[in-house]
Amino acid sequence: MRVLDIKLFRDLKRLWAQALAIALVVGGGVATLVMAVGSYRSLEETRTAYYDRHRFGDVFAQVRRAPKMMIDRIAEIPGVAAVDARIAKLALLDIPNFREPATGQFVSLPEGGQPVLNQLHIRAGRLPEPGRTEEVVISESFAGAHAFVLGARFSAILNGRKRELLVVGIALSPEFIYAIGPGDIMPDNRRFGIVWMSEKALANAYDLDGAFSSVSLKLLRGASERDVIMRLDALLDRYGGTAAHGRKDQTSHAWLDHELDMLSNMSRTLPPIFLLVAAFLVNLTLSRLVALEREQTGLLKALGYRNIAVASHYMKFVILIVVGGIAIGSVAGTWLGIVVTKLFGDFFRFPFLVFVKSPDLYLMAAALSVLAAIVGAARAIGEVVALAPAVAMQPPAPPRFHRVLPRWFNIALVLSQPAVMMLRNVTHHPIRAAFTTLGMALATAILIVSLFTRGTMEELINVTYFMADRQDATISFVEKRPQDTVYQIARLPGVLAVEPYREIPVRIRSGNVERRIMLSGRPRDADLSRIIDVDLRPVVLPESGLAISDMLAQILDVRVGDLVEIDLLEGQRRTVILPIAARVEDYFGIRGMMDAQALSRLMREAPAVNSVHLSLDTNRLDAFYGAVKQLPIVGGLALQRASLANFRETVALLVTTMASIYTGLAAIIAFGVVYNSARISLSERARELASLRVLGFTRGEVLRILLLELTLLTMLAQPLGWIIGYGLAWMMKTNLAGETMRVRLVVENSTYVLASAIVIVAAVLSALVVRARINRLDLVSVLKTRD
Amino acid sequence: MNQSIFTAQALTKIYASGEVEVRALRELDLDIAAGEVVVLLGPSGSGKSTLLNIMGGLDRASSGRLYFNDLELTSLGDRDLTTYRRQHIGFVFQFYNLMPSLTAYENVALVTEIAEHPMRPEEALALVGLEARMDHFPSQLSGGEQQRVAIARAIAKRPEVLLCDEPTGALDSKTGILVIEALLSVNAQLGTTTLIITHNASIQTVADRVLFFADGQISRIQKNEMRRAAAALSW
I want to staple A150 with a disulfide (CB 3.0 to 4.6 A). Which of A125, A367, A544, A625 is the partner? Predict the structure, then answer.
C-alpha cells in the first residue's frame, strides 16, 4: 500500500486548508474538555493537598468563653483526632491613610509556634516571638491591598482599647482562602483581613486568660460528623456555644467549593456540548469530503483494489485529519488548562499548585472524535464503494428535479436566474441543506452559551445591588445589642436612615432534608433592603411565617403554605414549626427571613439587633467613618459600593475570563464549519459552475449563485441557533445553580447579535476564499475530469 | 484462429437512470479470440462502453452470460470481480484517469503493487517511451504522455486483456498515433488481447476485426486480412 500512502499525504497537502479547518474543529472540542476538566481536577487536587499539608479542620465551633480544661473533654469525643482551641475575635482596624474603617479577624497563635490545626503558610517573615505582644502576622491578600510590608504598623481597637500592631509575617491559611467580612457577600481585601497574634496578647485584651472562644476539630477517618457536632454542642452549650458546624458551613470552604463546583459544572456542561458539536460537524464535513472522491474511488476499484483497501485508504485520510486535530486540541487544551489553573490558583492564593495529568481525558476526547469521523466517513465510503466502478467513475446522474410551483407561474419573473438555481439546489438537496444549516446553527449556539454569562452577571448585579439590597452600608455588631442601639447609630454623622436586623443561626428542616442557615428578623416595611420575589416584585414580609430563598425552597421541596421545622441555635434553643409565607429571589447563599417582632417573640427575648443597614449622605462619609472607628460595639462595616466593585473584580472576572476562553474556542469551531461548508459546496458543484462560466456567465454571477446559497443557509441557521443556544444556556444555568450562588438566565439581545455576527464574519471570510477559488477555476479541465 | 477468450451469450444491460429506462445492450452474442486486436465502432449510446465495462468487470449485465475463458463473469460477486480485474484486465480510459497526486512512476506502481507478476514500473514506462518522464506529475505531462502513462499502468501487470475506451479521443492525431503504436507494440510483444473503442474510423485498419455497434447490438463485423501499422495511420 506504499503508493496509496504517498497519495494520502499528497492529498492532505493539497487539501491542507480544509484539513486544517476540520482539525481545528476537532481541536476546539478536545481543547475545551482537556482545559476545563484538567484545570478543575488540578485545582481540586491542589485544594486537597493544601488542606492536608496545613491540617485544615473538619468541625468548627464558636463559644463566648470556655475554660481550657474543656479541650481534654472535647478530645475524648469518639471520632476526634485533634483539637485546636484558640481565641478568635472581630475588631475594627485603624489603618494609616485609609479613611474607611476596616475589620480584622483576630486569631490567636500558640506561644512561639504553629497551631495544631489550620496551620499558616508563611509567605514572608516569621511567626510572632514569645512575649512580643505587638507582633502580628497578616493575611497576604490584606497585606497586598494595603501594600503592607514586614515592619509596617497599623492599629486595632481590641475590646475598646486601641493597640499598635507591628507586621512581622505575611501568611496564607486554608481556613481563610476566601476571606469574607461580617455583613459582606464578597471578599474585600482592603476592608477585611486576617490578623494572627500571640494568644497571650489576645487573652489579655479580651480577658480570656485560660479560656478560648473558638475551636476546630480534626476527625478520624470514618467518624460521623453529625455525632461529633451533637456531642460538641452538648459540651459547649453552657459556655455560650453557637451550634458547631462542618466544613460545608465554613465560609471560606463553602465559597471555594462553590467556585470549584462552578468550574466542575462548566466542565461537565460545555465541553461535552462542544465535543459533540465538533464531532457532528466533523462527521458531516468528512462524509462530504469523501463523497467528492467518488471518481478516484471508482478508479482504484477498476484497477483491482479491493473495497476494504479503498475504504481503509479513505479511513486513514480521515483519521489523520482527526489525529491532527486531537494533537492540536491536546496541546492547546493542556496549555489553556495550565493558564486557567494558574489564574484560579492566583485568585485563591494557593501556596502551590498541583497539576494533575489526566490521560483518560485525552483518550476520551480522542476516542469520541475518531469515532465521529469514522462514522461520518464510513457512511460516504460505504455509498461510494457500493457503486460499480463504471458508475463511480462517471459523475453522479443528474438529481431528479421537478417543478415545485405550477408551470404558469414563472418564478424567473420574480427572482433572477441565479436565485432560481440556488433555490432549486437547496430544495433538491434538502438533507444536505438541513445539515449544513444545523451545523451553522450549532456554531451560533455554542457561541451563545459561551457569551450569555455576561448578561446573566449584569442581571444578578441589578437584582442584588439595585433592587434588593439598596443600603449603602451595613454595620455588624460584635454581639447582639438592645433595640435602642438603633438610635445611637442613627445619630452618627451622615446617617440618613437605619434598618435594624436580628440574625440567629437556625437549622431548617422538611422531612429528611436539613440545612443550617441564618434567620434574619427584619422590619416589615424595610425599604433599604427589600425582599424581591421570583417575579422580581418587591414584597412586604408577612406578619407571621417565613420567607426563604427560592433555592432553599427547592432544596427542602416546600411551597408557600407548607410547614417547616426550625431549630433555634441560640438562646433557649427551642424547636418551632413555621409556615412558609414567601419565596425570595436571591442569588447568594440560602437564607430565611421573618418579621423582627415575630422573631423576638419566637426567641422569647426583648427586641435586639445584630446589624443595621444604613442609608448614608455621601458628602459626610469621612465624618461617618471617623465616628464608626470610635465605636467599640462595631465588629464590621460592609459597604455596598465596595462589594459591587469586588464582585465585578472577582467572580464576574473569573466567569467572564472562562467565557472568553470558551468563546474563542467556539469561534474557531464556527469558522471551521462555515469555511468547510463553503469550500465543499464549491467542490461539489465545480463542474456545474464551470459549465455556467463556459456558457458565458461572469465570475461574479457564478460566485453569486454559490454565495446566495451560503447566505440563505447562514441566515436560516441564525434563528435556529438562537433557540438551541438559549436551550443550552438554560441547561448550563440550571447546572450551575448552587446553594452559594446562582443566576437568573438572561440572554441579552447583544449576545444573540454577537454570536450571529461571529458566524457571519466567518461566512464572509469563507466567501472571500471561495471567490479566489472561482477566479482560478480551470474551465476546460473541470469540464473534462475532476480531481 | 486461437481459442475464444471472451464469449457473450444474449448479453443484456438495462440502465434505470432517473425516470427513464435505457437498454444499453440487447441480447448481444460475441466471441473474442485470444491475442486479437478488436476495434469497436458506433455512435454514442450504441452499447460499446457498456460492453467494455461488463467485460472488464466494472459493471454487471442485467441478463445473459459472459465467459472469460471458462470463468462465467456474469455469476461473479463484487469480490471475485475485483480479483478478476486485478489478475487479468488492464484499462485505458479516454480521460486517462491518472491520480493527480501521484507521479507517472507512482501511478504505475499503484497497479504493480497489487499485481501478481508485474513488470517493474520503469519497464512499463519504457514500453510506451516515457522512461525519461517518470517523476513528473500528470499536470506536468501532455495529454498524449498522460495517456501513455495510463497504458503503461494498464500493461504493467502483464494483463491478458487490454480494454481501451476511446484512448485517442482527447488527443490530436500525432499523439493519437503514438498511443495506438504503444498499444499495438504491447499486443505484439505480450500477446495481449486488445479491445479499442473509438469514434475514429481510420483506426479500424489496425485491427484484426472491427465490430460495428448500433442500438445495443452488433450490426456488422468486418475482418481485416491485412493489419496496417500504426505509423501508416493518419486522420
Answer: A125
